[in-house]
Specification:
Blueprint lengths: L1 H24 L25 H5 L1 H7 L2 H29 L18 H12 L14 H29 L2 H5 L2 E3 L3 E6 L2 E10 L9 E11 L6 E7 L13 E6 L20 E9 L6 E8 L4 E3 L1 E3 L3 E3 L4 E3 L7 E3 L7 H6 L14 E4 L2 E4 L14
Parallel strand pairs: 2-9
Antiparallel strand pairs: 1-3, 2-3, 3-6, 4-5, 4-7, 7-8, 10-13, 11-12, 14-15
Length: about 375
Amino acid sequence: SSIFLCLYHFLEVDLSYRTIMSLSRRKQRLRYMQRDGRFPVVFQKAPGHWSPYLMDIFTTLVEIRWRVMFLVFSLSYILSWLFFGLCYWLIAYVNRDIHNADDKLCVANVRGFTGAFLFSMETQATIGYGFRFMHENCMVAIVLVTVQDVFSCLLDTIIIGIIVAKMASARKRAQTVGFSRCAVVNLRDGVLCLSWRLGDLRGNHILEGVVKATIVRYIKKQQQGSVMMSYQDLDIENREIVLATPATIIHKLEPGSPLYSVGPEDLLEDHFELVVSFTYPGDSTGMLHQTRTSYTPADIRWGQRFQDMLKVSKRSYKVNYALFNETTWVPVPRLSAEVYNRGRGGDQSQRQNFPLVRRSGPSCQENLDNAHEVMHQTSL
C-alpha cells in the first residue's frame, strides 16, 4: 500500500507541475498594467494633444526624466542670457557705443555681441565683476536690467521648486513599498482565500494605508482591435493596513466574488488581471503615495501559502525579507470555491496534497525532490 501511496503522490506532483508549466508557457498576453505600476496605454489623435501638458507645465516638468529636466534647466538660462545679451547689443548698436567715448556709453566695455552676452550673464547670475557696468544716462538699458533681474528671480524660483518637487516625488517613496511576485490560494478557517503580500523596506513604518484590488477583464468586439474593459472590485479583509511588519492581504472566495467560480484548471483558459494598489501618506512629507502592481492567472499559485518571515526575539521583532516571495505547498482541494462549498463535508478524496514550492528569482520554481515530504505540510 505504501508503494501505491508513493505512486499516487508522484502522479499528483506531475499533474501539478504540468499545470504550472502550462500557465507559464502559455502565450503571453499584453498586460493591462505592468508589474512596476505603469500602464502600456498610448493616446492617438487626442483632441488638444499638447494643450494638457502646456496648461499644467509645472506638473509636466516634474514628471519628465531627470536628464530632460537638466536639459530644460540649462537651456532656460542659456536662452535667457542670449535674449537679454541680444537686447543689450541692440542698445549698444543704436547708441553707437562702439565708436562713442567712454562718457557717452549705455553699458561700459560692451563693444560687441560677446561683451553684451557676458554682461547679460553677469547681471542675471549676480556675479558683478565690475568691468562691465551700466551708465545712468541710458534709461532704456536701466529698464532692461530691471526686467532681467525680476525675470531671473522668477526663473530661479520655478527651477528650484521643480527640482525640490522631483526630489520629493511620491514615486520614489513608492519604490520602497512592494507587493509579492505572486498571489496564492489556500484554505483559511475552511474558506478558500486569495492572498498576496505587502511590505515596506524602509525603517520608518507606515501606520495608515488603504488597499484596493480590482479584477480587470477585456473582451474583444467584432471590430478588429476593438476591446471592451470591465472592472470588478474585490472585497478585502482589513482594507486599512498598518505596515510596521509585512502584511498579507486576503480576499475570501465567497459568493459575490468575481473569482468564486474559478478553479485551478480554469486559470489555464481564463483571461483577467488582478490590479492591486496601496495608498498611504508619507510620514516625512505628508504627501500621498501609491504603490501598485498586477497579477495575471499565471501569477496565481493554487494550493500554496507564503512562508513565515516574522520571528520574535527578546528585544525586537525580526523580519526576514529573504522569505518575502517564498511559498510552500499546502493541502488544498483542486476545486473552485463554488464547487468546494457545494460539496463541503462530502467526499474528502477531492482534497489533494502538493509538493514544496520555493520562490527563487522573478518566477516560482518547483522543487519536485522528496515528494514524500508532502505529507508533513500543514494547512493555514
